[in-house]
Amino acid sequence: MDIILLERIEKLGTIGDVVTVKDGYARNFLLPNKKALRANEGNKKVFEANRERLEKENVERRGEAEKAGEKVDGAEIVLIRASSNSGQLYGSVTVRDIAEKLAEQDLTVDRKQIILGAPIKTIGMFDVRVRLHPEVDVTVKANVARSDDEAELQTQGIDVMAAMFEEEQAEKKGFTEEVDPSLEPGEIPADMLEEGAEAAASDEAPADEAASEGETEA
Q1: Res 163: pLDDT
Q2: What whole-number distance in Å separates Cα of residue 170 and Cα of residue 150?
Q3: Mean pLDDT across 61-81
Q4: How much is the average pLDDT of 124-150?
Q5: In the chain, N or C: fewer CB atoms in 10 Å?
Q6: Is the pLDDT at 120 greater than 90, yes or no?
Q7: SS3 of the chain
Q8: What is the average pLDDT across 23-36?
Q9: Cα–Cα distance measured from residue 169 to residue 70, given in angstroms and rounded to the nearest whole number
């Protein structure tokens, strides 16, 4: 379907551009949200008659968004969540969670303005894009951790997930015997053979002593 854009749409164009999009995208999103008009002769005339007003209103809205963005850009929110030892969350962090945390800092952002792509499902620091206007994007940081202490470490730039992995590997290594790389598969280390021989000798000693005593009595 051919449409006339009423605002800038990422990867499509800006106000007044006539572009072709899939029918479903136009009918389900662009047209009902008044982001575009069908590109027929009647709508083209209507748009041209109102172009100056639309462009002026867009500039005003962009200015307001830029001003609001100064407060929102770079904000950090902390979300405490339970997770497995591997850092996988029991649940996920959604746009609603992010909007609510921003609101706690008196930063009003509509959920529709938060561009997350997919819910956050692991511990870590995440850059979340917020689109305050078609031409104004800002970034907030979502600090997802299991505790306030972990969140503080992540704020300092410490990779908690990597630290967890290293700790887990260290624990595993503590329960693993070191292998002599010079040995052939299945070969017993010499020190173990010596220990085995000494143990065998000590086991045989009482038997030899008993035999000697028997001969003396006879």
Answers
A1: 76
A2: 20
A3: 95
A4: 95
A5: C
A6: yes
A7: CEEEECCCECCCECCCCEEECCHHHHHHHHCCCCCEEECCHHHHHHHHHHHHHHHHHHHHHHHHHHHHHHHHCCCEEEEECCECCCCEEEEEECHHHHHHHHHHCCCCCCHHHEECCCCEEECEEEEEEEEEECCEEEEEEEEEECCHHHHHHHHCCCCHHHHHHHHHHHHHHHCCCCCCCCCCCCCCCHHHHHHHHHHHHHHHHHHHHHHHHHHHHC
A8: 94
A9: 43
Amino acid at 215: E
CB distance 132 to 8 below 8 Å: no
Beta bridge partners of 122: 88
Backbone angles phi, psi at 99, to 5 degrees: -60, -40
Residue 84 above 60 pLDDT? yes
The structure tokens 């389900």 sit at: 28
